[in-house]
Amino acid sequence: HIEVALPDISAREKIISLHLENKPHDKLNLKDIARKTAYFSGAKLENLINEAAIIAAKDNSTLLRQDHINRAYSIVLAGHEKKERSHYLEEDKLLTSYHEAGHALVSIFKTPEDKVSKITIIPTTKGAGGYTLTIPKDSSYQRLDYLKNRIMVLLGGRAAEEIIFGVDKISTGAQGDLSQTTEIAMSMIAEYGMGKT
């Protein structure tokens, strides 16, 4: 089978432009959209534009606008916001707030090249209690120090829970973060040869 690399920023801009051809749209900054979509495949870019068009239609807008793209970006990465949220306990909202703040703070200090673009405690249909979105630097390679720092960012939410509430009050909210951390660590050792020998 033939493996196709993910598109770089220039290719992403062209793919986005292609998918916007038949969709009436406001003047959009395609370069900015391409920059924010690092590591998106062509199919994911198509999904982004289609989601934005759906949002525009629901808004009864004749033009696809930047705010539609922004909302679609969150949906593509994290899922739709859950509509019914009245049953969420205040203590869960507080825990989620500290958890997401932990991710954001560690990201600002350990991976400043990855811009924090959104932090929310609104749960999504993909199971997240909240999320922190960052825009990663568009790079062909990821260095060892960056991968270690990414792991720290992923564990920042759990660390914040432990610092604020104590070790006996940590939650299951870090499940996805721990899965991603394990995946990165395994790849570092088994695929990238970054383990100590």
TrEMBL record:
<dbReference type="GO" id="GO:0005524">
    <property type="term" value="F:ATP binding"/>
</dbReference>
<keyword id="KW-0378">Hydrolase</keyword>
<keyword id="KW-0862">Zinc</keyword>
<keyword id="KW-0132">Cell division</keyword>
<dbReference type="InterPro" id="IPR041569">
    <property type="entry name" value="AAA_lid_3"/>
</dbReference>
<dbReference type="GO" id="GO:0004176">
    <property type="term" value="F:ATP-dependent peptidase activity"/>
</dbReference>
<keyword id="KW-0131">Cell cycle</keyword>
<dbReference type="Pfam" id="PF17862">
    <property type="entry name" value="AAA_lid_3"/>
</dbReference>
<feature type="domain" description="AAA ATPase AAA+ lid">
    <location>
        <begin position="28"/>
        <end position="69"/>
    </location>
</feature>
<dbReference type="GO" id="GO:0005886">
    <property type="term" value="C:plasma membrane"/>
</dbReference>
<keyword id="KW-0479">Metal-binding</keyword>
<dbReference type="InterPro" id="IPR000642">
    <property type="entry name" value="Peptidase_M41"/>
</dbReference>
<dbReference type="GO" id="GO:0051301">
    <property type="term" value="P:cell division"/>
</dbReference>
<dbReference type="GO" id="GO:0046872">
    <property type="term" value="F:metal ion binding"/>
</dbReference>
<dbReference type="InterPro" id="IPR027417">
    <property type="entry name" value="P-loop_NTPase"/>
</dbReference>
<keyword id="KW-0645">Protease</keyword>
<dbReference type="GO" id="GO:0006508">
    <property type="term" value="P:proteolysis"/>
</dbReference>
<keyword id="KW-0482">Metalloprotease</keyword>
<comment type="similarity">
    <text>In the C-terminal section; belongs to the peptidase M41 family.</text>
</comment>
<dbReference type="InterPro" id="IPR037219">
    <property type="entry name" value="Peptidase_M41-like"/>
</dbReference>
<protein>
    <submittedName>
        <fullName>Cell division protein FtsH</fullName>
    </submittedName>
</protein>
<feature type="domain" description="Peptidase M41">
    <location>
        <begin position="90"/>
        <end position="196"/>
    </location>
</feature>
<dbReference type="Pfam" id="PF01434">
    <property type="entry name" value="Peptidase_M41"/>
</dbReference>
<dbReference type="GO" id="GO:0004222">
    <property type="term" value="F:metalloendopeptidase activity"/>
</dbReference>
<dbReference type="GO" id="GO:0030163">
    <property type="term" value="P:protein catabolic process"/>
</dbReference>
